[in-house]
Write a structure and sequence with these properties.
mainly alpha; 10 helices; globular; membrane; transmembrane; Inner membrane protein; transmembrane helix; YdjM-like
Length: 250
């Protein structure tokens, strides 16, 4: 399915899951305005966190695809620090001539200008390194860091609809995020939202050609009710997005 379809399904899924995860019914903006102003921020924040987590989770499996929506967002995030490093290296070259510095400039230029796939891999690698640093500084447990870092590495080098669409990936990410939750108990809603959104993505792709749940066994499980990019795919994306907006506002 297209990225916007996964986002729409994730957003509607957050609305449906609200009574089970927040233990209160979904409250659209119209109903929130009739509540006490003291309670509005709390409800808005919880619902916004849940929707954001579902939507992000519904895009995560496609980080193995260079042209996917989530990958393009990661590229934009990586572009600024790569560009800043490039400018810094060029500035240093004015002070001294160094083959190492020139080599670094060439590498960064290639990363900034050419390969989307390289930018995506740099972004995922940076996340893994950052997690390792946090664990080294005892801000995060290794039980949380290692599985999530392994997921990032798997997404860096796997082909589309392979590792990230498997039960191994679900286990690694879920296990890691669960241990994040045990350290930071306030993020339990976001952790649940991320994982349910992730699973919704796999279910949606299962009816759009199947997913290799038991990867590295390449057999795809599911059916082809619709084709990615087809009229049905666009219709599902449009209906779920507009449906969520209607639920959010009215």
């Amino acid at each position: 399915m297209l990225g916007r379809s996964h986002m729409g399904i994730g957003a509607v899924g957050a609305v449906v899951a609200t009574p089970f995860l927040l233990h209160e019914s979904w409250k659209p903006m119209r109903r929130l305005l009739s509540h006490s102003w003291r309670t509005i921020p709390h409800m808005l924040i919880l619902q916004a966190i849940l929707v954001a987590a579902f939507v992000i989770g519904s895009l995560l499996p496609d980080l193995d695809e260079p042209n996917a929506l989530a990958s393009r967002d990661l590229e934009r995030f990586m572009a600024l620090p790569v560009f800043a490093l490039l400018v810094g290296m060029v500035f240093l070259l004015h002070r001294e001539t160094s083959l190492d510095a020139w080599g670094m400039v060439i590498v960064l230029t290639l990363a900034f200008r050419t390969s989307r796939n390289l930018s995506r891999r740099l972004g995922l690698g940076l996340i893994a390194v950052l997690l390792a640093y946090l664990a080294w500084k005892h801000h995060l447990s290794w039980q949380a860091t290692i599985p999530i870092a392994l997921w990032c590495v798997g997404a860096m080098f796997s082909k589309h609809r392979t590792f990230t669409h498997s039960l191994i990936a679900v286990f690694l990410l879920g296990y890691g995020l669960w241990h994040v939750h045990t350290v930071f108990s306030d993020v339990h809603v976001a952790v649940l939202g991320l994982m349910i959104g992730y699973i919704l993505h796999l279910i949606a792709d299962a009816i759009a050609g199947g997913v290799p749940l038991f990867w590295p066994w390449s057999k795809r499980l599911g059916m082809r009710i619709l084709t990615t990019g087809s009229a049905w795919d666009h219709m599902i994306g449009g209906l779920t997005v507009f449906g969520f907006l209607a639920l959010a506002l009215f």
